[in-house]
Design brief:
Blueprint: H1 2-18, H2 23-30, H3 34-41, H4 49-59, H5 63-67, H6 75-83, H7 94-106, H8 113-143, H9 149-175
Helix pairs in contact: 2-3, 2-4, 6-9, 7-8, 8-9
Length: 191
């Protein structure tokens, strides 16, 4: 129990600092006392029920992710998860299909996978829509013999390279222990 309390206080403090909030700002926004925030972060007490949810709402995190009940850290799975996006090189929409399978299979077992997976899948859905729209426009311009098709082709190549480079870079970062949401959050379709 002591270890879990220490982890919760540490995680709350890390997220608060990452969000550039002072203890006073967190307390005011969560409508709790500054002393309560201090006690939690110093591992003198553990937040329960309403207090935990008020803090999580202000920090924009899920209480379940904060508590990580029954979850384990698995860097290798996160690396494989990021690299699974590269399936689009062989399978149309493989950048969505394979990550969805991996995400649904272990999102409640691996620490951080639930939010990382949602972040990755949101990016891949948006990327796929833009990618296939680009192919459509390129084909249309080629058929109609407009001269702008080379620019559209350049965008096509750029999108292709981005979706090869990002998963590799993010897999390396995950292997080094970075478990933040790394992909740009353009549109949140999956939470």
């Amino acid at each position: 129990m002591k270890l879990a309390m220490k982890e919760i206080g540490k995680k709350i403090k890390e997220v608060r600092k990452r969000k550039s909030l002072s203890q006073e700002e967190l307390a005011e926004s969560a409508k709790i006392s500054v002393r309560t925030v201090q006690r939690i972060e110093n591992n003198e007490s553990q937040p329960h029920g309403k207090t935990l949810h008020l803090i999580c709402d202000v920090l924009e995190i899920n209480a379940e992710d904060l508590l990580d009940y029954g979850k384990k850290e698995d860097k290798s799975y996160l690396v494989i998860f990021h690299l699974s996006v590269l399936a689009f090189l062989a399978i149309p929409l493989g950048n969505i299909i394979l990550p969805v399978i991996l995400w649904l299979n272990k999102k409640n077992e691996v620490i951080g996978l639930k939010s990382i997976g949602a972040n990755l899948l949101n990016f891949q859905i948006v990327w796929s829509v833009i990618f296939f729209a680009n192919i459509f426009v390129f084909t249309l311009l080629k058929i109609m013999h407009y001269g702008y098709s080379q620019y559209i082709f350049s965008v096509f190549i750029g999108l292709y390279l981005i979706n090869i480079a990002l998963p590799i870079v993010f897999a390396i970062k995950s292997n080094k222990g970075k478990t933040d949401n790394l992909y740009p959050n353009i549109i949140r379709l999956i939470k």
